[in-house]
Amino acid sequence: TLTVRRNEAANWLRRTVGVVCAKNLAEEPSEEEFRVGLRNGIILCNAVNKIQPGTVPKVVEVHSVSTIPSDGSALCAYQYFENVRNFLTGLQDLGLPTFEVSDLEKGGQGVRVVDCVLALKSFAETKKLGKQSLFKHGGIVKPSMSAKCSVRKNEPFMKAMTRSHSAELLRDGVSPEQTLGLDCSLEPAETITSDSIRMLVQTIISDKKPEEVPLLVESLLSKVIHEFERRMANQNDLMDEEDHESVTNHVKTDEEDNSCVTNNVKMDDEDHNSVGSTGDVSAAGLVNGDSVAKEIQAMADIHFELQKKQIQDMKSNICTVKSGIEQFKLQYSEDLAKLGNHLRTISHAASGYHKVLEENRKLYNQIQDLRGNIRVYCRVRPFLPGKVSSSSSVAGIEDRTITLMTSSKQGKDARKSFTFNRVFGPLATQAEVFVDMQPLVRSVLDGYNVCIFAYGQTGSGKTFTMSGPKILTEEGLGVNYRALNDLFDIQAQRRDTFCYEISVQMMEIYNEQVRDLLHSGPNKKDSK
Ligand SMILES: Nc1ncnc2c1ncn2[C@@H]1O[C@H](COP(=O)(O)OP(=O)(O)OP(=O)(O)O)[C@@H](O)[C@H]1O
């Protein structure tokens, strides 16, 4: 705020001119007190002369302090005006902001006075800083030039600052010998720009004799090179530090990798357990980059050797597997060749199968023909329950012959023998009877027509032989059932090579009449 800034300005003036000179300016003056305190221009002129001696060549002052009223009214108005005017002119010469004389009168713009004083304060501080910097590095001591020579009227404040700063160097003067001691390595926060440096050099050589210039430039360049090398060395040191930090971080990262490696090593080979402990020690004892690098290199070497060994093992395993595969391939080709031979044999056999089958069929049926195209069998029914067995007319039964005895005739005529393909006695079972007929069923499936029928008087046992008893059992199955069973069995055996269609009809011939027993409707007589 304005009050704070005004207090700051008052304090700075008091410090600059001393409390005796600034006895009429309070530390924290009001606006009026500030105006009255500075009104006669004495404090202002002394202040600017402290900063820049000679800015106000003559300050009108009253030495008898006691005679000066608090508002400075003892001085004539023109005297006040003279001091203030000289002060403002000096500010203009320094390129600082100014104010109007009327601003120190009642009703004037006191803020402009405050601004002006604070600008002078900044100027003084900047100048002091520049001097310290120069003295610190240089030893520039010989004033030979007025500050005014480098300060032009109405230049911008900051530009004036820079120029003034440069002017300090010049004003203090530099002999060639002294310049040799000039340290161009101004502080890193130096305020001198390239323009000001150029100006500085120009000014330095401007008042030098031509023969002094090369020596001067040489000394400057020498200093510049020296400074450049120093900064490069600093830069390298900084970069080394950064690299070291980077290496340390890298090592930390590698520590984690090494722990993985260590685990792998432990798992792979117990002989390499020492590797794990080495890795732990190196991880714990990372002190500097070299030792760490060596540890890492050692770990990498061990890991490399381990991997090399694993690769060799894998190579030998691959060789073993390869030879195994070659052997297997050889055996496989041999087996394949054997299988091919077998297949050729089977193929050859298969090609002759149908021929052989046909031949077999012909031979089989030739046998059936040889056994008789028409075969006649005789079966003797046992006595039915309740009948006397002694009244039988059968005198004897042989394999193919049966002998009957007629009680009404005597002698030789009483006995007659009959020959059949085979004679079955009363004890013959259904299975025994069917055995002689079974080959004919196979001939049916080979394409031959076969007819099996029973012939005899009523109650002689035709139905029993062909179908079975009234209460049917497995053993009692007659020729019809057994023949049909055989037909279906042979059909199943040959299903891969033959396809058979089987159908059944049941006809009855009775009293010269044929009847279809499976016809569900009214009996249909068929003369055929
Ligand atoms: N080998 C046998 N063993 C036991 N019993 C038999 C035998 N043959 C026939 N029989 C019995 O004799 C009786 C008459 O037989 P079956 O009915 O088969 O004669 P059939 O010749 O068919 O008579 P029909 O011409 O009148 O029909 C039946 O009770 C039957 O069980």
From TrEMBL:
The keyword ATP-binding applies. SUPFAM superfamilies: Calponin-homology domain, CH-domain, P-loop containing nucleoside triphosphate hydrolases. CDD domains: CH_AtKIN14-like. One of its GO terms (molecular function) is microtubule binding. GO terms for biological process: microtubule-based movement. Residues 373-528 form the Kinesin motor domain. The keyword Iron does not apply. Belongs to the TRAFAC class myosin-kinesin ATPase superfamily. Kinesin family. KIN-14 subfamily. This is Kinesin motor domain-containing protein. It comes from Aegilops tauschii subsp. strangulata (Goatgrass).
